[in-house]
Structure formats: C-alpha cells, structure tokens
Queue: 4 jobs
Job 1
Amino acid sequence: MYQPQLLPFKKGLKGISDKTVSIHHDKLYIGYVNKRNEIHNKLSEIEHNDPGKLDAANQTFSELRALKDGETFAVNGVYLHEYYFNSLGGTGTPVGSLATDLAKVYGSLDNFTRYFKACGMSARGWVVLGWDTHLGELRVYTGDAHNQGGVWGCIPIIVLDVYEHAYFIDYGADRKAYVEDFMVNLNWDAVNEVYEKVKAFNR
C-alpha cells in the first residue's frame, strides 16, 4: 500500500492559512492516497483472480476501463499534491542552479515568474514546471484535471495547485493574490533538490 507523506514544512505560510493546509493535506491529499490504494486492490484482484472481467473489457464501458481511468486520476492526484507541498514552506528567495537556469531559459527570473504566474491564472487545475526528458529542457505545462494536460516524460519540479480548494477559504475568488503568495512561499531549496536529482538522472 502506498503510504501518505507528511507535510514537508511547518505550517505558518504567508497568506495560506493553517486551516487550508490541514484540509488540503489531511483530508484531500490523504483521500487521494486512500482511493489510489482502493483502486490498486481492485485492479490486483482483476489481474490475478477474475479473467471474466478481463474478457469483458470494453472501451465504451467496463469495470476495467472505469478502474483504469480512476487510477490515473487518483495516482496523479497523489503525486501532484506531493510536488505541490514540496514546493511550499520557503521564503521565496531564489537560490541554486534552478534559479540560474530559469534565468537563462526565460531571459530573466522575473520573466519566468511572470510567465508561471500567468499560467496559474489560465489553468483550471495545475501548473507544472518540469524537466521535459524528450527536449532536455525546462518547460511549463498546465492541466485542467489530474489526468489531463500531463506530458509523458516530463518530471515535475515546481507544482502549483490552482483548484479553488487550495485558496478559496483564505482568498475567496482572488486567485491572483494566492498565486502571488505561492511564489512568496516557494521553497527554492526543496525544488533545487528535485532539480539536481533530475539533472543527475538525465546525464
């Protein structure tokens, strides 16, 4: 069974309340982990003990299709939230090779930040700064759902959750203020650690 990760930072973020963080992590994220495990158990049963359900597989509707669709939604819900929480808990002060490389790719770190925040205003679910292993470069992608908009071969580094549950308690409909505060709370040390692992993996 997949085990949920603890929050990687102490509470007390700027603008994003402890209540929001607790609901987001302890209820929503843990809920995705539980559903991921439930789906995994049901798929394992079908894989090993229920050839009838394998024979009944159908692209219009079948139990296997429904579980496989739910699997991608739940698993991505787990992983994206883990990258999101990993992105938080810092001071927003850019440091490390990621900041240096982003300035090179986008002309300046301000240009990257402006673009990333604009993506946060245009996406309905997620903004992901990732390393595209096909292109061998940093790219920003967006998704309207956990299992929509993701790019195969892209490893997330900074992930911003822009679903309403991430900010509505604290900001109401003012998503822009939430996105601004996300950047203020960005943990550059943590995302640099991910970036260094990605670069080492791709050498």
Note: The chain has a mean pLDDT of 96.
Job 2
Amino acid sequence: MARNQVVQLTRDSGLRNRMYLTMVMLAGVYAFFILLLISAGIPLVLVVGFAAAMAGIQYFASDRMIMKSTGAKEITRNEAPVLYDMVERLANRADMPMPKVAIMQSAAPNAFATGRNPKNALVAVTTGIQERLTDRELEAVIGHELSHIKNRDVTVITLASFFLTVASFVMQMMFFRMMFGGFGGNRNTNGGAMMMLLVGTLLVQFVAQLLIMTLSRYREYGADHSGAELTGDPGSLATALEKISSATAQVPSNDLRKMTSASALAFYPTLKGHSVQSLFSTHPPLEDRIMRLRQLENEMRNAPQPSRLDN
C-alpha cells in the first residue's frame, strides 16, 4: 500500500443496520420520557436547557477534559517522530485532518481518541502500549482510533446520551423534592404523578443505558473493521488485542485507575474485574473482536487482487 494512498473504507451492512435499530429504539425510549415529563408538569425548558449546557461542555471540551484527567501530554514530531509519522500517515490514508497526538505516562497498554469532529481531534497512546507492541501492531491500534474520529463516534455517543443526562437531572430534582417536601401535591402535580415519574425515570435510565452501551459496543466493532481496512492488516490488530489483554492483567491497579476517565474511549477496557460480557460494558467481548478480525484477515487474504496496468 502506498504511503499516502487514500483508503476507501467500507461498512459492515449488518452491523450498520443493528446500529440504526438501536438508535431507533433509543429514540422511542426518549419519546416516552418526554411524554412522561409533560404529563407530570415538569418544566421542560429548564431541564432540557440544563442538559444541553452539560452536553455542550462535554462536546466542546472533551479533548481538554480527558487530557487533564489522564495526564496525557501533547507531543510534537520532534519529541516522538515515529509515533507522529505513524499517525500522520494513517490520517492521510483516511483522508482526514491530522489530529493532535499525545502520550500518557502509564504502564497500562492502551490508547484512546477523542474530539468533537475530525478537525478537532486527539489521539493518545500510553508508554505501556508503545513498549509492548510492535510498530505494525501499534499502527493497527492507531488505525482503530482514527476510525472512531472518522466515524464521529464521540458525537454520536454524546447525542445518544443527551436525554440520559436529562433523566439524571430529573432524578436529582426529585431527590431534593423528597428531602424537603415528599411527594405531596401542588398546583401542577400530585403524589401519584410524582411516583409515576420516579418509576418512569428509573426505567428510562436503565433501558437507555443498556441501549447506549449496546451502541458503543457496535461502534467498537465498526472501528475494528474500519481500522483494519485502513492499515490493511487485521491480523496485527487481533494480535495487539491478545497482547494487551494478557499484559493488562499484570498491570498495577494504580496505573489502570489513571485511565478510568477515558474508559469508554479506550481501545481496551481499563479496570481489572471488568466483565466485557456485561450488558453495561462499553466494549464487546475480546473473543468476538478477535474472531471478527481473523475472519476479515482471511477475507482480505483470499480476495482477488486488482490488476495493475501501467499508464
């Protein structure tokens, strides 16, 4: 593959359809929640306005917040030429702007990407992942992270989580109401309506969280697929996952905790004891990711090669 050749990424149609179905289901849950708020007399302008402000802060300042919480430091080409060139080369292949590059001092082998769009993006790797992976494996991981940026996954998850933020704010309002006034009635609501709102909000939070985590897992599968196409090397991405899984079990808990704030964005789940098969996991099961990548590797190996004609 040529150094700066643009790669046309494809999408797994089955995976894409499951993403769309999940988003439709999530929209249905949120529509139910809006009707519930209206019926209970909750001031929508206040609640939605607060949630919009919170979402806006998360959306526009996500890269700075993550860098501060993880201790990742932005680097220049002179400070880490091999890593910087690797990111630049893959960004060119993906036909996207060059993101900022950062390194986090941590023994935990991991990487993450954040940013509201391809023009305002960041790719970060830990010192641990640089030490444990070969250049081809690290390039495969960076391809995965750039695919998240290319697919605007941070934006998608932020929008998907918007009304979950609203539900959390409503729960806080109801908590203070119980502390100072119970479920007694007023001119807008009564005890029965408040109890219905409490149960409904809890249900919305539970179901919405399940759907958002499902969507997040699908987007990890999508980034694996796109990243493997970007590098043309799904086998190295599968091997990187195997190495990182084995190494993470040996990393001290203190190093893993440094990545907690970036857990949902990380290439690999960050906490020991984290069950990747949990319904609330942001990442798919490791075995499934590796199996899909090995299948893609076989498909690429057996695909007919296009004829090359001299101009």
Note: Residues 273-277 have pLDDT under 50 and may be disordered.
Job 3
Amino acid sequence: MTDPSHAGETADGRTLDRRALLASGAAGAGVLALSGAGTAYARPARRANTKQIAFAQPDTSAGLYPLLLAGAKSACKRRGYQLLQSHANGKLDAQVNELNTWIGQKIGGVIVLPLDNNAMGPLIKKAHKANVKFLDYSDKALPGTDGWVIFDNLGGAKLVGDYAGKWVNKNLGGKAKIALLTHEVQQTGRDRIHGAVAAIKKTAPGVQVVARHEGVLAADCLPVTQSILQAHPDINVIFCIADDGCLGAEQAFLQTKPSKDRKAQMFIAGWDGAVPVMKKIISGSVIRATGALDIVGIGAASVDATADAIEGKGNPRVNYPYTLISQSNPAAARKLIAKFAKA
C-alpha cells in the first residue's frame, strides 16, 4: 500500500502530510470542553479542500506523463486549483488507497485512469457521499461518474490498423503474422487493439493474429515480446496498446539481431503520440506509426472538466480525436513534437 501522505504531494513537489492537511482544514474548529472529570478536546471538524484536484493517472513512468502533467498544471494555475498527483505506480491496491485518502480529505474532485474498473464502484459512491466529484479518464465505462475525458479510440484504431494493412499489402504481399500487446481490463485497451485488428483485416485480409499478451509499458513489453518472438520468429506486425510499449517491443526485436531484410518486414505501432516514439518513426525505425493525441491538451482538459464539475457546470464530457503519425507523413510528427516542446 502506498504511504497516505503521498496523496498530499503537490505538482510542484511540496509535501503536505496528512496531519498538516487536517490541521489546516480544521482551523478554528477545535472546541475546548471542560468537565469535572478533567479537560477534553472535541474532534476537529474536517473542512472540505474544494480547491484541490487529484489527477489519478497511475502510469507516471510513461514517457507521455510529463506532457500530461504540464497541461494539467497549466490549467490548475489558470483555474485557481492545487494539483495532486498519483503515486500508485500501476498498482491497484495503491490506487485504491490514495483515492480513499483523497476522498477522506474531501478534496474538490478526482479524475482517474482506473487500473480496475470493478474496484471503482464503491469509491464513486464514497466520493459522492463526501461531496467529492469523481470523473473518468480515458474511458467512459464507469457508471455514476460526474463526467469524463476520453479519446476517440475506435477512430484512432482504424487510422493505425488501416495504415498497417496498406503497409502489409505494399511490403509483404498482403500476408502477415500479428502479435498484440494488450490491456483488456480497460475499454481503451480493448477499443484500440480490437479496432486495429478489424481495420487491418479489412484492408489486408491475408493477415492473421498468432499471439496476444498483456503488456502496456516498455518494461512489461520487453520480456513479453522476447517470449513472443521465440515462439513466433516470423512475426511481421506488433500492435502495442500504448506507445511506451513500442519501445520495449522494438528493443526485443533488435536483440534478435535482425538482418536488413528482416527489419524491412517488421511493423510496430501504438497509440498516444509519445515524443520518443514519434522520433523513432521519423528516423525510419521499425516503429512505423502511432495514433497520436494532443497530450498537453488532454492534461488541461482533465483539470478543466474536473473543475467544471466541482463548480456545478454540468457533467463535462470531452472526446479527443487522434492524428495518424507515420513514416509517410513525418511533417505531422515534427509539428506535434514542436508543440510539446513549448509546454
């Protein structure tokens, strides 16, 4: 379980421990009671910290996280809120613990990328009892939330899958073996991977999926891809649920010491629009495409949506489109990289 005091760490690195948060929230609320049996102090009332927003994005080691954070910080400054960050590090028990802590502190609202949708139901109910707004990030699969910031995952899946199919038709004669690095517990994962498979099969009917394993970030996808390539050394296409996983998949492939011809027959693609992956695409690596999102804009939108919910401005719903970044349009990658550099 994560240390509950971590949930009080601000985006600028200042630490507000649990005791300090409670003390500041209870200023002036302590009541001194005197009786014949001695002196006793009533429990201080806990005041809501409504000008705090928690961004519960647990994949903080992912390459895109600093860009999300930059957008979120900018929006918090503009809206007059304090930003709290996740320290769950991809662990469900830690995520549940920090959400409970934030709800107990009665912050204004939280927007969460859930590690397990089924674990969120009781937390949503608890948040609403405490008058804490609870929004869904990346999915709209959680019932009873106060809004969401999602992505046009099926549209992004079609962009990548169709491009991959055209590449297979041009370079492999319409036939390829596909490996999938997935995250089936989340709707975003299912939509991206399943949508891409449907699109590539429509464009290149001769392809076949021969391997499927769970894996999101590079550290997970490196050993998984190593195992896949040992079992299926003739894999041609690898779809990664997230761009970060592309880096691990590429590393595993390069460890096989592929020939120039073998490299020319490999296609790795993902989604998100992480800068390291876009640079790989520009350089002509075996990572050839990504469905890119405006990561900075999404970070800002996550805060704005949560602030709108806190301020009673309805049930915010934001749906971000994808842009195809590929070796066929390197200018699009350079434009997005330049925008992110200014964040």
Note: Residues 1-45 have pLDDT under 50 and may be disordered.
Job 4
Amino acid sequence: MRVALFITCFNDTLFPEVGINLVRLLERLGIDVEFPEEQTCCGQMHFNTGYQRESIPLARHFVSTFANAEVIVAPSASCVGMVRELYPTVAALSGDAALVRAVEAIVPRTYELTEFLTRVLGMEDVGAYYPHRVTYHPTCHSLRVLHLGDAPLQLLRAVKGIDLVELSDARECCGFGGTFAIKNADTSAAMLGDKVHHVLDTGAEVVTSADTSCLMHIGGALSRMRAGVRTVHLAEILASTEEK
C-alpha cells in the first residue's frame, strides 16, 4: 500500500516533527509514504469563519493534488474532518459538477492516522515503546466529526512501558476551536482552565491527542503555569521505540 501524507498547514508550519514521526511510523510498518509538495491549506479556517466561497479554490487544489493517491493519511482529526464532512458542502456551493465528483471520489480515501491504523490496517500494537505517564485528550473533531471512538486509546494501551491514565471529563472541549479562542477569549480561557485542571489531576507527564491545535492550546497554559507537563502528538508516541 502507498500512502500520501496530508501534513496540514498547521503541522507543516509549527510542528513538523509530527509529520516526520508519522512517516517514520508508517515506514516501520512497511508502508510506502509519498509527500505531495504542492499541498496547501485545506480551507478549514476559511470555511469555519464564514468565508465559505473562499475555501472553494483550496478544496479544488486539494482534490487535484491528491487525485491519484491510493490512500491519504493526516495527523489531524480536524483537517480530515474538513475534507470528509465539509468538502461535499464546499463542492456543492461551487456549482461545479466535476468538483462534486472529485470530492465524492476522494472523501472515502482520506483518513486520520489512528483510524487508518486500526480500521484500515487492523492494527493495535504498532511496536511502540514509551515509558511515561500519559493522559489522552480526545478532540472535538475526533469525537463528534470523525467518530474515532476509542481507536486512539486502543493504540495507546498497546504501547509498551506506557502508564496511561484516564482524563476526567475528557469529552469536554479544551476551548481552542481555531479562531474561537481569539474571538471569544474569556470563554475559551475558562474552558481551558477546566481542561488543564483535569490534566493536572492525573499526575501525567505527557498529554497526547490527535490534533496539535488543541495540544498547542493546552500546552500553552501548562507552560505558563510551569506545570512540568509536556504535550506530545500521538504520532510521536506511536513512532517511539525502545531502540530510539
């Protein structure tokens, strides 16, 4: 199987190590990974802030870039959610029948990393080793858009050496929500405060998740508090091995 990496602009710009570790993980599992360099933003930011027509060229570019990909995998539930759930709306809004057909063809081939591993490859134990106390934050998009369920937890439970601890009120939003955190700063900060409180209650060394956007939000608060708790994307944990 050959996989095309959809890195997302957020990871590419701010957290390139996530993509590096995703490639390292998949190649360790015997999967060929290609990286279409012409990929850009999926348009989620535009769509979610009311600029829906402005997201049409970005959706058109995405389907053109990945048209020949057998499978598309991304380390972001949020951006995969944009492609799978909102691209049909974007395509319909464009009035372009060819774009509608292209979206219909690409949506079933686009996966978030943990669902690709568990539901496509049928794997749980990917040979990872991570001797740390970890808690998992399920993001809103992973829960309510992609319906990942416990796929990320299945993978984490199989990691050797890990001490995985449950996060209280895990399903509650961290308060990021893209531009929501900027436009509704007070509400976002209150939600973030609750999330960080629950994280600290676990005694975890590491908070992990399927979205670096949420981890950035949570990690910012933890850093300002000097709490000594790190944020690490799931791909980095799953790519880690005892030999590393």
Note: Residues 44 and 79 are 7 Å apart (CA to CA).
